[in-house]
Write a structure and sequence with these properties.
490 residues, FAD/NAD(P)-binding domain, 34% helix
């Protein structure tokens, strides 16, 4: 076990932890990452969860924010084995009449498929997709900052602060367009009546047009492996099976960054934190949890709508009103009879994921935080609703309640995959109101997880911004803009 001192320790090897370590190593710091699990990656991992030869993503599956992350785009991840696959259709949202609303990467093609809502959709999404690089630089950081692109941000902000259901009803007239936007906004885990829930629909919709909703060839693990390989090429170290439960478990370092939730950090560093700050961390509110199922299938899912057979991601929940009702039920601490179900069918486009002629399916629904209810029947009923005969395709299934997800990744407390709720207040105060929320009152201790801005998702920006704070505070280094991809193979 290596306990010699280094400049910085990073606790946790999720995308944010690895991003923080890379940022520090690029600046010339010696860095060591400590990971409790036997495999690295946190929420970006893959494993054989069902039958031999089937590769399943343990948590994240489809990665628009990874592909669009300003920090990830500055790294040589493709040179280190990461390959992005863009399905022909990014997202399909089937309806009960056998049709499907679809998000394609081309804005005009998507708009034209929405009939009389074509012009409304184009006016809403085209400027956001065009300004994606500017917008990503603005919203993938703390809300309390001096905008570099105020015009683009203002254009986004006018609609972003609205409830998703209200924006969908005011902008669109057809059930298809309203359902499409509602499903994208429901990634927020918020009721669609909540202020700022529309922001998630706008961000992920714009990302779909600007960078797609891609999947990584070979599984989400390849994202983490590429990040780890780059860190090691810079001299960084990674230790697996190294659990940190107390500050005494840490080797000496000038700074320690925690890619753990704020609740875990409070438990590890409790005696070093002022009581008021510790209360703020422990009172930070959780998002709802997820119930997830991984499937090994005998063949493709028999979707009624042909568009669904060409889509990497599917949203199953019918019309706007049904999705809104289901998400409101979850927010109230109950289980909907017809849950909103998110589905990914990676093996249709990546043949490394399943044996010849077979397929995988990844599906989850939202449930109250810490739920112990088995949602298998409810999820499969929703899939069968749009793909009659689906159950006949199942070779094996691996369901996971929130407690199962937490055992696989302790950051997923109660099934919360976002490091805390995404409501307007907790986007501003994540986990405290500060222009540098990564800094804690305890000297040399920093947070770099999804409990800090900009929150959940595989994008590395929480780790990048935290590392910038550490470099300024502890090493007197002020970083300029994110560097271009100028990496050369060692």
């Amino acid at each position: 076990m290596k306990d010699n001192s280094c400049d910085a320790i990073v606790v946790g090897s999720g995308p944010n932890g690895l991003a923080a370590a890379i940022t520090l190593a690029r600046a010339g710091c010696s860095v060591r990452v400590l990971e409790a699990n036997p495999s690295l990656g946190g929420g970006a991992r893959s494993a054989a969860l069902t039958l031999p030869g089937f590769v399943h993503d343990i948590c994240s599956a489809i990665h628009p924010l990874a592909r669009g992350s300003p920090f990830f785009r500055s790294l040589p991840l493709e040179e280190l084995g990461l390959r992005w696959i863009q399905p022909p259709i990014a997202l399909a949202h089937p309806l009960d009449d056998g049709s499907a609303a679809c998000l394609r990467q081309d804005v005009m093609e998507t708009a034209q498929s929405l009939g009389k809502d074509a012009s409304s959709y184009r006016r809403l999404m085209q400027p956001l997709a065009r300004d994606w690089n500017k917008l990503a630089a603005e919203f993938l950081q703390p809300l309390l900052h001096l905008p570099r692109h105020p015009i683009a941000l203002a254009r986004f902000g006018f609609g972003a602060l609205a409830p998703a259901a209200m924006l969908a009803r005011s902008r669109f007239h057809t059930p298809a367009a309203r359902a499409l936007f509602a499903g994208i906004a429901a990634h927020s885990f918020l009721p669609l009546s909540a202020p700022a829930s529309a922001a998630f629909g706008l961000v992920l919709g714009a990302a779909g047009h600007a960078v797609g909703w891609p999947l990584p060839r070979g599984g989400a693990q390849t994202i983490s492996d590429a990040l780890a390989a780059y860190l090691q090429s810079l001299g960084g170290e990674i230790e697996l099976n190294r659990r940190v439960e107390h500050l005494d478990d840490l080797p000496p370092a000038r700074a320690v960054l925690f890619d753990t939730t704020c609740w875990q950090f409070a438990a590890i560093a409790k005696e070093k934190l002022p009581a008021h700050y510790r209360r703020r961390l422990t009172n930070f509110r959780h998002a709802p949890g997820v119930f997830k199922i991984d499937y090994a299938l005998s063949g493709p899912v028999p979707w009624r709508a042909q568009e669904c057979r060409a889509a990497g991601t599917l949203h199953l929940g019918g019309k706007l009103e049904e999705i809104a009702a289901g998400e409101a039920t979850v927010a109230a601490g109950r289980h909907p009879e017809r849950p909103f179900v998110l589905v990914a069918q990676q093996s249709l486009f990546d043949r490394t994921r399943a044996p010849a002629g077979k397929e995988t399916l990844w599906a989850y629904c939202h449930v109250p935080h810490g739920s112990d209810r088995d949602m298998t029947a409810a999820i499969e009923k929703q899939i069968e609703r749009f793909a009659p005969g689906f159950r006949d395709c199942i070779l094996a299934r691996q369901p996971a309640r929130p407690a199962d997800l937490e055992r696989a990744n302790p950051n997923l407390i109660g099934g919360d995959i976002n490091g805390g709720a995404n409501d307007l207040w907790q986007l501003l105060a994540r986990p405290v109101v500060s222009p540098a929320p990564y800094r804690t009152p305890a000297r040399r201790l920093y947070l770099c997880s999804s409990s800090t801005p900009p929150g959940g998702g595989v994008h590395g920006m929480c780790g990048y911004h935290a590392a910038r704070t550490v470099l300024r505070d502890c090493f007197g280094i002020r970083l300029g803009p994110i560097p271009p991809n100028d990496y050369k193979q060692p």
